[in-house]
Amino acid sequence: MGKIFRNILYQGRNFYRDKSFIFWSLIYPIIMAIFFYTAFSGIIDMEFNNIEVGIEEENPARPIFESIDILNINIITEKDSVDKLNNGDIEGFIDNNLDLSVKASGINQTIIKEILDQIKQMGELKVPFERFDFDTNYIIDRNQKANSIIILFYSLIGMVSVYGVFPGIEIATIIQANLSNVAKRMNISPLRKSEFLFSGIIISLLLNIASNILLLLFITYVLKIKLLTDIGPSALLIFVGNLFGITFGILVGVSNKLKLNAKIILSIAITLVLSFFAGMMNPDIKVMVDKSFPIVGKLNPISIITNNLYRINLLGNTNEVDIGIYTLLGWIIVLNLISYGFLRRKTYDSI
User: Any residues with CB less than 8 A from the CB of 204 and at least 6 apart, and which?
Assistant: First the structure.
Protein backbone atom coordinates (compact mmCIF):
# COMPACT_ATOMS: atom_id res chain seq x y z
CA MET A 1 0.00 0.00 0.00
CA GLY A 2 2.90 2.32 0.83
CA LYS A 3 4.42 1.76 -2.62
CA ILE A 4 1.14 2.60 -4.34
CA PHE A 5 0.80 5.79 -2.28
CA ARG A 6 4.37 6.85 -3.18
CA ASN A 7 3.67 6.14 -6.85
CA ILE A 8 0.49 8.26 -6.67
CA LEU A 9 2.44 11.20 -5.21
CA TYR A 10 5.20 10.84 -7.79
CA GLN A 11 2.85 10.66 -10.76
CA GLY A 12 0.71 13.50 -9.41
CA ARG A 13 3.74 15.80 -9.33
CA ASN A 14 4.72 14.58 -12.78
CA PHE A 15 1.30 15.45 -14.25
CA TYR A 16 1.34 18.97 -12.84
CA ARG A 17 4.78 19.59 -14.34
CA ASP A 18 3.24 18.79 -17.73
CA LYS A 19 2.13 22.11 -19.28
CA SER A 20 -0.07 20.37 -21.86
CA PHE A 21 -2.01 18.61 -19.08
CA ILE A 22 -2.52 21.90 -17.24
CA PHE A 23 -3.74 23.65 -20.39
CA TRP A 24 -6.06 21.00 -21.85
CA SER A 25 -7.52 19.77 -18.55
CA LEU A 26 -7.85 23.05 -16.62
CA ILE A 27 -7.51 26.15 -18.81
CA TYR A 28 -8.99 25.13 -22.17
CA PRO A 29 -12.41 23.97 -20.78
CA ILE A 30 -12.85 27.29 -18.96
CA ILE A 31 -11.95 29.20 -22.14
CA MET A 32 -14.58 27.18 -24.05
CA ALA A 33 -17.20 27.80 -21.35
CA ILE A 34 -16.53 31.55 -21.52
CA PHE A 35 -16.76 31.45 -25.31
CA PHE A 36 -20.12 29.62 -25.24
CA TYR A 37 -21.48 31.99 -22.62
CA THR A 38 -20.36 35.08 -24.52
CA ALA A 39 -21.79 33.81 -27.80
CA PHE A 40 -25.14 32.57 -26.48
CA SER A 41 -25.80 34.43 -23.23
CA GLY A 42 -28.63 36.38 -24.86
CA ILE A 43 -30.55 33.16 -25.48
CA ILE A 44 -29.62 31.42 -22.22
CA ASP A 45 -30.60 34.41 -20.08
CA MET A 46 -33.76 35.08 -22.08
CA GLU A 47 -36.58 36.42 -19.90
CA PHE A 48 -39.88 34.93 -20.94
CA ASN A 49 -42.12 38.01 -20.70
CA ASN A 50 -45.35 38.40 -22.64
CA ILE A 51 -45.09 39.70 -26.20
CA GLU A 52 -46.38 43.19 -26.93
CA VAL A 53 -48.51 43.12 -30.10
CA GLY A 54 -50.34 45.97 -31.76
CA ILE A 55 -53.60 45.42 -33.69
CA GLU A 56 -56.32 47.62 -35.05
CA GLU A 57 -59.63 47.80 -33.19
CA GLU A 58 -61.61 46.40 -36.13
CA ASN A 59 -59.24 43.45 -36.64
CA PRO A 60 -61.47 40.38 -37.26
CA ALA A 61 -59.07 38.10 -35.36
CA ARG A 62 -58.85 40.37 -32.31
CA PRO A 63 -60.78 37.97 -30.01
CA ILE A 64 -58.32 35.20 -30.86
CA PHE A 65 -55.27 37.33 -30.07
CA GLU A 66 -56.82 38.50 -26.79
CA SER A 67 -57.41 34.87 -25.76
CA ILE A 68 -53.72 33.90 -26.09
CA ASP A 69 -52.03 34.38 -22.71
CA ILE A 70 -48.54 35.08 -24.02
CA LEU A 71 -49.72 38.13 -26.03
CA ASN A 72 -50.32 41.60 -24.61
CA ILE A 73 -52.69 43.30 -27.05
CA ASN A 74 -52.32 47.05 -27.76
CA ILE A 75 -55.21 48.61 -29.71
CA ILE A 76 -53.60 51.15 -32.05
CA THR A 77 -54.00 52.48 -35.58
CA GLU A 78 -51.78 51.50 -38.46
CA LYS A 79 -50.48 55.08 -38.57
CA ASP A 80 -49.33 54.93 -34.91
CA SER A 81 -47.78 51.47 -35.35
CA VAL A 82 -44.64 52.84 -37.05
CA ASP A 83 -43.68 54.97 -34.05
CA LYS A 84 -44.57 52.17 -31.62
CA LEU A 85 -42.35 49.71 -33.50
CA ASN A 86 -39.46 52.17 -33.74
CA ASN A 87 -39.67 52.94 -30.00
CA GLY A 88 -39.84 49.26 -29.07
CA ASP A 89 -43.25 49.63 -27.43
CA ILE A 90 -44.58 46.73 -29.52
CA GLU A 91 -42.74 43.84 -31.20
CA GLY A 92 -45.16 43.39 -34.05
CA PHE A 93 -48.20 45.02 -35.62
CA ILE A 94 -51.04 43.07 -37.29
CA ASP A 95 -53.33 44.97 -39.62
CA ASN A 96 -56.91 44.09 -40.55
CA ASN A 97 -55.68 41.93 -43.44
CA LEU A 98 -53.61 39.84 -40.99
CA ASP A 99 -50.35 41.15 -42.41
CA LEU A 100 -47.48 41.41 -39.92
CA SER A 101 -45.12 44.41 -39.60
CA VAL A 102 -41.97 44.17 -37.45
CA LYS A 103 -38.95 46.35 -36.78
CA ALA A 104 -36.52 43.51 -35.97
CA SER A 105 -36.32 39.73 -36.17
CA GLY A 106 -36.21 37.44 -33.16
CA ILE A 107 -37.94 34.67 -31.28
CA ASN A 108 -40.90 36.84 -30.25
CA GLN A 109 -41.50 37.97 -33.82
CA THR A 110 -41.27 34.35 -34.97
CA ILE A 111 -43.91 33.33 -32.43
CA ILE A 112 -46.27 36.09 -33.65
CA LYS A 113 -45.78 34.86 -37.22
CA GLU A 114 -46.49 31.25 -36.18
CA ILE A 115 -49.77 32.34 -34.59
CA LEU A 116 -50.72 34.34 -37.68
CA ASP A 117 -49.88 31.42 -40.00
CA GLN A 118 -52.07 29.12 -37.94
CA ILE A 119 -54.97 31.59 -38.03
CA LYS A 120 -54.63 31.97 -41.82
CA GLN A 121 -54.55 28.20 -42.32
CA MET A 122 -57.68 27.77 -40.24
CA GLY A 123 -59.31 30.61 -42.18
CA GLU A 124 -58.60 28.86 -45.48
CA LEU A 125 -60.34 25.79 -44.07
CA LYS A 126 -63.40 27.98 -43.36
CA VAL A 127 -63.23 27.31 -39.60
CA PRO A 128 -65.12 30.04 -37.68
CA PHE A 129 -63.00 32.19 -35.38
CA GLU A 130 -65.03 31.16 -32.31
CA ARG A 131 -63.96 27.54 -32.83
CA PHE A 132 -60.24 28.29 -32.81
CA ASP A 133 -58.36 26.46 -30.06
CA PHE A 134 -54.73 27.48 -29.48
CA ASP A 135 -53.20 24.97 -27.07
CA THR A 136 -49.60 25.53 -28.20
CA ASN A 137 -47.43 26.64 -25.29
CA TYR A 138 -45.07 29.20 -26.82
CA ILE A 139 -43.25 29.60 -23.51
CA ILE A 140 -42.22 25.96 -23.84
CA ASP A 141 -41.09 26.61 -27.42
CA ARG A 142 -38.80 29.39 -26.26
CA ASN A 143 -37.52 27.27 -23.38
CA GLN A 144 -36.65 24.52 -25.86
CA LYS A 145 -34.67 27.04 -27.90
CA ALA A 146 -32.65 28.00 -24.82
CA ASN A 147 -32.26 24.35 -23.78
CA SER A 148 -30.75 23.48 -27.16
CA ILE A 149 -27.96 25.92 -26.34
CA ILE A 150 -27.46 24.26 -22.95
CA ILE A 151 -26.56 21.09 -24.91
CA LEU A 152 -23.30 22.89 -25.77
CA PHE A 153 -22.40 23.04 -22.09
CA TYR A 154 -23.36 19.41 -21.47
CA SER A 155 -21.23 18.33 -24.43
CA LEU A 156 -18.38 20.42 -22.99
CA ILE A 157 -18.73 18.53 -19.69
CA GLY A 158 -18.74 15.28 -21.67
CA MET A 159 -15.57 16.29 -23.52
CA VAL A 160 -13.77 17.34 -20.33
CA SER A 161 -14.77 14.04 -18.68
CA VAL A 162 -13.00 12.19 -21.49
CA TYR A 163 -9.94 14.42 -21.08
CA GLY A 164 -8.58 11.73 -18.78
CA VAL A 165 -7.04 10.70 -22.11
CA PHE A 166 -4.08 13.02 -21.42
CA PRO A 167 -2.92 11.50 -18.12
CA GLY A 168 -3.68 8.10 -19.66
CA ILE A 169 -1.15 8.79 -22.42
CA GLU A 170 1.34 9.97 -19.78
CA ILE A 171 0.90 6.73 -17.83
CA ALA A 172 1.56 4.65 -20.96
CA THR A 173 4.67 6.68 -21.74
CA ILE A 174 6.13 6.20 -18.26
CA ILE A 175 5.82 2.38 -18.34
CA GLN A 176 7.32 1.82 -21.84
CA ALA A 177 11.11 1.65 -21.93
CA ASN A 178 11.29 2.75 -25.58
CA LEU A 179 9.43 5.99 -24.85
CA SER A 180 11.03 7.52 -21.75
CA ASN A 181 14.14 7.35 -19.59
CA VAL A 182 11.99 6.89 -16.49
CA ALA A 183 10.48 3.79 -18.07
CA LYS A 184 13.95 2.41 -18.81
CA ARG A 185 14.92 2.69 -15.16
CA MET A 186 11.59 1.25 -14.06
CA ASN A 187 11.89 -1.80 -16.35
CA ILE A 188 15.26 -2.81 -14.87
CA SER A 189 14.13 -2.16 -11.28
CA PRO A 190 12.11 -4.47 -8.98
CA LEU A 191 9.16 -2.06 -9.30
CA ARG A 192 6.10 -3.83 -10.67
CA LYS A 193 4.53 -2.17 -13.70
CA SER A 194 1.04 -3.25 -12.57
CA GLU A 195 1.40 -1.25 -9.34
CA PHE A 196 2.67 1.77 -11.25
CA LEU A 197 -0.18 1.49 -13.76
CA PHE A 198 -2.79 1.15 -11.00
CA SER A 199 -1.36 4.17 -9.17
CA GLY A 200 -1.44 6.18 -12.39
CA ILE A 201 -5.10 5.38 -12.99
CA ILE A 202 -6.01 6.45 -9.44
CA ILE A 203 -4.18 9.79 -9.57
CA SER A 204 -5.45 10.44 -13.10
CA LEU A 205 -9.03 9.92 -11.93
CA LEU A 206 -8.54 12.22 -8.95
CA LEU A 207 -6.92 15.01 -10.97
CA ASN A 208 -9.33 14.87 -13.88
CA ILE A 209 -12.40 14.74 -11.62
CA ALA A 210 -10.94 17.75 -9.78
CA SER A 211 -10.72 19.61 -13.12
CA ASN A 212 -14.34 18.60 -13.86
CA ILE A 213 -15.45 19.99 -10.50
CA LEU A 214 -13.52 23.22 -11.11
CA LEU A 215 -15.24 23.67 -14.48
CA LEU A 216 -18.69 22.97 -13.00
CA LEU A 217 -18.06 25.44 -10.17
CA PHE A 218 -16.97 28.07 -12.69
CA ILE A 219 -20.07 27.54 -14.84
CA THR A 220 -22.40 27.49 -11.81
CA TYR A 221 -21.05 30.37 -9.72
CA VAL A 222 -19.26 32.61 -12.23
CA LEU A 223 -21.39 32.18 -15.35
CA LYS A 224 -24.54 31.59 -13.23
CA ILE A 225 -25.72 28.59 -15.26
CA LYS A 226 -27.02 25.65 -13.25
CA LEU A 227 -26.32 22.48 -15.21
CA LEU A 228 -26.70 19.76 -12.57
CA THR A 229 -29.99 19.41 -10.72
CA ASP A 230 -29.68 15.69 -9.93
CA ILE A 231 -26.16 15.23 -8.57
CA GLY A 232 -26.13 11.45 -7.91
CA PRO A 233 -26.60 9.92 -11.38
CA SER A 234 -24.80 12.89 -13.01
CA ALA A 235 -21.71 12.35 -10.84
CA LEU A 236 -21.71 8.61 -11.56
CA LEU A 237 -21.93 9.27 -15.29
CA ILE A 238 -19.06 11.80 -15.16
CA PHE A 239 -16.95 9.39 -13.07
CA VAL A 240 -17.37 6.55 -15.60
CA GLY A 241 -16.66 9.04 -18.41
CA ASN A 242 -13.36 9.94 -16.71
CA LEU A 243 -12.46 6.26 -16.39
CA PHE A 244 -13.20 5.77 -20.09
CA GLY A 245 -10.95 8.73 -20.97
CA ILE A 246 -8.03 7.27 -19.01
CA THR A 247 -8.35 3.81 -20.58
CA PHE A 248 -8.63 5.41 -24.01
CA GLY A 249 -5.47 7.44 -23.30
CA ILE A 250 -3.59 4.31 -22.25
CA LEU A 251 -4.59 2.65 -25.53
CA VAL A 252 -3.39 5.66 -27.54
CA GLY A 253 -0.15 5.57 -25.56
CA VAL A 254 0.67 1.87 -26.01
CA SER A 255 -0.67 1.24 -29.52
CA ASN A 256 1.90 3.21 -31.55
CA LYS A 257 5.45 4.58 -31.56
CA LEU A 258 4.53 8.23 -32.07
CA LYS A 259 6.17 10.87 -29.89
CA LEU A 260 4.27 12.17 -26.88
CA ASN A 261 3.19 15.44 -28.54
CA ALA A 262 1.93 13.55 -31.59
CA LYS A 263 -0.12 11.24 -29.38
CA ILE A 264 -1.64 14.22 -27.60
CA ILE A 265 -2.55 15.85 -30.93
CA LEU A 266 -4.09 12.56 -32.10
CA SER A 267 -6.19 12.25 -28.93
CA ILE A 268 -7.30 15.91 -29.19
CA ALA A 269 -8.40 15.35 -32.78
CA ILE A 270 -10.41 12.25 -31.84
CA THR A 271 -12.11 13.90 -28.86
CA LEU A 272 -12.98 16.98 -30.95
CA VAL A 273 -14.58 14.79 -33.62
CA LEU A 274 -16.57 12.90 -30.96
CA SER A 275 -17.57 16.23 -29.38
CA PHE A 276 -18.63 17.59 -32.77
CA PHE A 277 -21.05 14.70 -33.26
CA ALA A 278 -22.24 15.20 -29.66
CA GLY A 279 -23.36 18.74 -30.53
CA MET A 280 -20.60 20.85 -28.97
CA MET A 281 -20.04 23.00 -32.08
CA ASN A 282 -23.71 23.10 -33.10
CA PRO A 283 -26.68 21.43 -31.35
CA ASP A 284 -28.33 20.91 -34.75
CA ILE A 285 -25.52 18.51 -35.72
CA LYS A 286 -26.39 16.32 -32.75
CA VAL A 287 -30.09 16.33 -33.72
CA MET A 288 -29.20 15.40 -37.32
CA VAL A 289 -26.88 12.57 -36.23
CA ASP A 290 -29.45 11.19 -33.77
CA LYS A 291 -32.10 11.13 -36.50
CA SER A 292 -30.00 9.87 -39.41
CA PHE A 293 -27.38 7.70 -37.65
CA PRO A 294 -28.76 6.83 -34.18
CA ILE A 295 -26.13 4.12 -33.66
CA VAL A 296 -23.42 6.84 -33.65
CA GLY A 297 -25.09 8.64 -30.74
CA LYS A 298 -25.54 5.37 -28.85
CA LEU A 299 -21.87 4.38 -29.19
CA ASN A 300 -20.15 7.80 -29.08
CA PRO A 301 -18.93 8.11 -25.45
CA ILE A 302 -19.24 11.91 -25.40
CA SER A 303 -22.76 11.69 -26.89
CA ILE A 304 -23.67 9.17 -24.19
CA ILE A 305 -22.55 11.56 -21.46
CA THR A 306 -24.14 14.60 -23.14
CA ASN A 307 -27.49 12.91 -23.82
CA ASN A 308 -27.81 11.47 -20.34
CA LEU A 309 -26.79 14.69 -18.57
CA TYR A 310 -29.47 16.47 -20.61
CA ARG A 311 -32.13 13.86 -19.79
CA ILE A 312 -31.23 13.71 -16.10
CA ASN A 313 -30.99 17.42 -15.37
CA LEU A 314 -33.42 19.06 -17.82
CA LEU A 315 -36.01 16.37 -18.45
CA GLY A 316 -35.80 14.62 -15.07
CA ASN A 317 -35.50 11.27 -16.87
CA THR A 318 -33.09 8.67 -15.45
CA ASN A 319 -34.56 5.67 -17.27
CA GLU A 320 -31.69 5.27 -19.74
CA VAL A 321 -28.77 6.24 -17.48
CA ASP A 322 -27.94 2.61 -16.69
CA ILE A 323 -27.78 1.79 -20.43
CA GLY A 324 -25.36 4.68 -20.97
CA ILE A 325 -23.17 3.62 -18.05
CA TYR A 326 -23.11 -0.02 -19.19
CA THR A 327 -22.13 1.11 -22.70
CA LEU A 328 -19.25 3.17 -21.29
CA LEU A 329 -18.16 0.25 -19.10
CA GLY A 330 -18.25 -1.97 -22.18
CA TRP A 331 -15.94 0.47 -23.96
CA ILE A 332 -13.62 0.49 -20.92
CA ILE A 333 -13.37 -3.31 -20.88
CA VAL A 334 -12.71 -3.50 -24.63
CA LEU A 335 -10.05 -0.76 -24.55
CA ASN A 336 -8.32 -2.38 -21.56
CA LEU A 337 -8.18 -5.74 -23.32
CA ILE A 338 -6.71 -4.18 -26.45
CA SER A 339 -4.15 -2.23 -24.40
CA TYR A 340 -3.21 -5.39 -22.52
CA GLY A 341 -2.63 -7.13 -25.86
CA PHE A 342 -0.23 -4.38 -26.94
CA LEU A 343 1.63 -4.40 -23.62
CA ARG A 344 2.07 -8.18 -23.60
CA ARG A 345 3.85 -8.06 -26.95
CA LYS A 346 6.33 -5.39 -25.77
CA THR A 347 9.86 -6.83 -25.65
CA TYR A 348 13.20 -5.02 -25.71
CA ASP A 349 16.49 -6.30 -27.13
CA SER A 350 18.31 -3.87 -24.84
CA ILE A 351 17.47 -1.06 -22.42
Answer: 11, 15, 164, 167, 168, 170, 171, 246, 249
Spans of all domains in the chain: 2-43+144-344, 51-142
What span, in angstroms and rounded, lies between the C-alpha atoms of 197 and 161? 20
- Work out the angle at residue 131's Cα, subtended by the Cα atoms of residues 109 and 117, and round it to the nearest 5 degrees: 25
Residue 300 identity:
N
Q: Which value, to the nearest 10 degrees, does the dihedral of the CA atoms of residues 257, 332, 19, 30 take?
A: 140
3-class SS letters over 247-275: HHHHHHHHCCCCCHHHHHHHHHHHHHHHH
| Tens-place pLDDT, residues 97-143 | 888 888 876 667 777 887 887 777 776 766 565 555 555 444 444 44
**What tens digit of pLDDT does each residue of 205-247 get?**
998 999 999 999 999 999 888 888 899 999 999 999 999 999 9
The CATH classification number of 51-142 equals: 3.40.190
What is the model's pTM?
A: 0.68
Distance in angstroms (rounded) separating the CA atoms of residues 93 and 82: 9
Measured in whole angstroms, the distance separating CA 301 from the mean position of its chain's CA atoms is 12
CA 326 to chain centre: 20
